[in-house]
Amino acid sequence: MSFFGNLSTLFGQRNGSDLKAAKSSKLKTPARSQVLPAPLLPSQPDHNKLNHLKPDLTKSDSRLSHKSPTPAQSTTAPTTAQLSQFESMAREAQAKAREIIVEAKDEALMIRSESERKARQQEQQLVEQQRSLEQKLDKLDEKLGQITSKEELVQRDKVELERQKLSVEDTKNQVIKKLEEVSGLTRNEAKKTLLENLEKKIRSESAQLIRQVQEETKQEVDEKVQEILIDAMKHGATEYVAEYTVSVVTIPNEEIKGKIIGKNGRNIHTFERFTGVDIDLDASPNEVKLSCFDPVRREIARVALERLIKDGRIQPARIEEVVEKVKTEMEKVTFEAGKNLCHAVGVFNVPTGLMQLLGRFKYRFSYGQNLVTHTIEETKIGTKLAHELGLNVNIVKLGCLLHDIGKVSEDQDDNHIALGVRIAKKFGLPQAVIDCIAQHHEDEPFSGPEQMAVYIADAISGARPGARYENLEEYVERLQSLEQIATSYPEVKEAYAVQAGREVRVLLEPEKSKDDDVTVLAVKIRDEIQEKVVVPGSVKVTVIRENRATEVAK
Q: Which residue in 252, 273, 347, 469 is a FRET match for 386, CA 20 to 30 A apart?
């Protein structure tokens, strides 16, 4: 770019006066004009440039006229000066042109060198990349060959293993066949005989061990336990009666049912969506039945429906408004119920959130037994046990109060024990109280006497006569399950579930059993009942075996 810039600068200086001077020099001094390069002289005069030259000539004439008034000198002197000026400018132009040409050549040479250098670098890089690719391809080919050889080896080993496996099976079958011929028993018969002998040996030893432990335990604790339990039950008597309620709303007439349903069922659908309950309008002409697994939701729905019926404006917007208002009021009611429960058992400084959950006990029932009633009763029994045994009363009291807190958890993705432990940890309760919650159904081994006291108090409260209620179908199903578990053993002759399913009496066939079987079978039936049957309280298993001989004297 510098080359063309210099050229434009050079030729831009050639104005009209230079051209006119060159013309006059050619006419008067041909010898000098021949020295100039031909391309620098124009072939025809440029009249426009001559017009620009006229003012300069006029000025020169005026300056010369002051020096010499002679006419001959005035016409000759300006022409000579301009000629000499033009020659010097021409020489300068030629020198600049040569400099520009040299610079242009240098610049072109530099550009060419730089481009050649970059081209060599790129060529070298390409060569190196090609060499690297070739090396990688060689390595890939080598690895591919190794993989192929390994696959062949693996395939040969696989075939060899299959052959050896078949050979081992054949050898095994031959050995078993020879053993069967020698012993005179088939493989299944031999296995059965071994298991029977082992079971007889283990049964005898286990029965002796169980009987020994039971006798030692009975001798040490029977009398003391009886005294403590009788005294605890006496002090645990409560004036509360278990509630047996059903969420039923009475309606004045059957026309109200139409309003509850609404046009195309929009009212009943809105009510069920906002309350989370199911409405049964066919239970009775003058009743509406509400069903839901969550007792708090069911109570909210009952109160809201009673208010809507009384108000008479049953429509989606009004339903939403009333349900939200009842929910707010229900939070206050449950908080007061939880506060009253804590004060009734003598527990104070309970966190507000935990007290709110305890208030939900008011609407929660377990086999017909209200949780508020059960909790107060159990806490009184547990507190008395703790005093008698010298245990930590505060731990036992908190454990009894919170042992069923998982039953009112809003998160029902687990059993109530795991949920209760999670809630207790959330509120930062002591580990001893958490253990009481986790162990009150013997899901974990007892970690201390306080935990055992909570378990005993819960069992007494739930198992006392009249404490709980369940429907006839579930009751009969539980009794049948208990009897089926007992009769599933071949030694059992008959089995009966008595005392409302709290005891199972099992009669053994003397010819098919031994005295040791009594203890072992009682333990087996107990473990199977704990695993398969859900019972409110505990179930006592009694196994009986007797021999009778009858003779008639004549």
A: 469
Sign of CA dihedral 127, 128, 133, 138: positive
* Pairwise CA distance, residues 385 & 68, whole Å: 150
Please state, in angstroms and rounded to a whole number, the distance separating the CA atoms of residues 71 and 273. 126
Cβ distance 403 to 378 under 8 Å? Answer: yes
CATH number given to 248-463: 1.10.3210
* Strand-pair partners of 24: none
With 0-12 / 13-18 / 19 or more C-beta atoms within 10 angstroms meaning exposed / middle / buried, residue 473 is exposed
- What percentage of the chain has pLDDT greater than the value 70? 77
Could you tell me the end-to-end alpha-carbon distance of the chain, in angstroms, rounded to an integer?
Answer: 150
What is the spatial distance between Cα 431 and Cα 288, in angstroms, rounded to a whole number?
46
Dihedral sign, Cα of residue 508, residue 509, residue 512, residue 513: positive
Query: Can you name the residues that pair with 505 across neighbouring β-strands?
Result: 496, 542
Closest by CA to 417, choosing from 446, 395, 454, 442, is 442
Cα–Cα distances (Å) from 346 to 162, 232, 393, in that order, read 75, 17, 11
What is residue 294's three-state secondary structure?
coil
- Res 13 pLDDT > 50: no
Tell me whether residue 549 is exposed, middle or buried, using C-beta atoms within 10 angstroms of its C-beta: 0 to 12, 13 to 18, 19 or more: exposed
Assess contact for 379 and 405: CB atoms under 8 A: no
The residues, any chain, with a CB within 8 Å of residue 116's CB and separated by 6 or more, are none
CB 497 within 8 A of CB 504: yes
**Topology (CATH) of 474-544:** GMP Synthetase; Chain A, domain 3 (3.30.300)
Count of alpha carbons within 13 angstroms of residue 343, beta-carbon side: 6
User: 428 to each of 185, 341, 420, 422, 521, how far by Cα in Å?
Assistant: 65, 20, 12, 10, 44
Pair of tokens at residue 466: 């009249």
Q: Where are the domains of the chain?
A: 2-132, 248-463, 474-544
Which comes out higher in pLDDT, residue 70 or 540?
Answer: 540
Packing angle between helix 47-67 and helix 16-28, nearest 10 degrees? Answer: 70
CB 84 within 8 A of CB 93: no
What are the distances in angstroms from CA 398 to CA 223, 269, 366, 441? 28, 42, 20, 16
pLDDT in tens, 356-397: 888 888 877 776 677 888 888 889 888 988 888 888 999 999
In this predicted structure, which of 53-57, 82-86, 119-123, 458-462 has the lowest mean pLDDT? 53-57
pLDDT exceeds 90 at position 122: yes
Using CB atoms within 10 A of its CB, is residue 264 exposed (0-12), middle (13-18) or buried (19+)? exposed
CA distance 330 to 360: 10
Plot region of 539 (φ>0 → left; ψ -120 to 50 → alpha; else → beta): beta
